[in-house]
Write a structure and sequence with these properties.
By secondary structure, the protein is mainly alpha-helical. The chain is built from 9 helices and no strands. Helices cover 56% and strands 0% of the residues.
């Protein structure tokens, strides 16, 4: 397993089991998000991280805090936009960058893993509304998704890209107005193919 997959899997097990860390047994007595400033500072460092080795411990620390709020996820709401902003900037920078997608942002899979954990703790409906939803974001996000392989270690990245696209597609606009025709396949058909690709089974993306 990759470092990102282990990171997400470990935190996901905590969320699903309902077991908080030992030092947070009284998590349900919290009145507010006490670590908000600490977490936001860490997320700023994640945005600037240049390598997986630099990014991973920062993500682990943030995830360790977030899972403590699974019983009171609403306490995160006033800070969701602030927390997601640096991660979204990394995501947007990644999909918009030119060149080989594998040579862009080396920390993208960790960043997407962190967005996934936010979705797990707070719920994807509350989280997705803070993702970009401009029509111009659709085709770059789709291109990034199309270039992803089916590796079992990068499924959170595919999850986040699909979630982002679903948000953009809720915005009313003419698909033809943003279709760059960079391929012979129309944009609408490419979107349908991407959706069908991940509907063939019930396993993770």
């Amino acid at each position: 397993l990759s470092s990102m997959d282990l990171l997400v899997s470990n935190e996901e097990q905590v969320i699903r089991s309902g077991d908080a860390p030992d030092d947070d047994i009284a998590a349900n007595t919290r009145s507010h998000f006490t670590e908000a400033d600490q977490v936001c500072a860490l997320l700023g460092q994640i945005e600037e991280a240049k390598s997986v080795a630099e990014c991973r411990p920062l993500c682990e620390e943030v995830m360790g805090v977030l899972v403590q709020y699974q019983e009171q996820p609403g306490l995160l709401d006033p800070y969701l936009a602030r927390m997601l902003a640096p991660l979204v900037r990394v995501l947007a920078r990644w999909v918009q960058a030119a060149g080989d997608i594998n040579d862009r942002e080396p920390t993208i899979h960790l960043v997407c893993g962190l967005i996934y954990v936010m979705c797990m703790v707070r719920g994807f409906k509350a989280t997705v509304r803070h993702l970009p939803h401009e029509a111009a974001d659709l085709e770059p996000a789709l291109e990034a998704l199309e270039q992803q392989d089916d590796s079992s270690t990068t499924w959170p990245t595919r999850y986040v890209l699909l979630l982002w696209m679903s948000m953009v597609l809720l915005t009313p606009f003419n698909l033809q107005s943003i279709d760059s025709s960079s391929t012979e396949v129309p944009l609408l058909e490419r979107i349908l193919r991407a959706g069908q690709r991940f509907l063939v089974g019930t396993a993770r993306l």
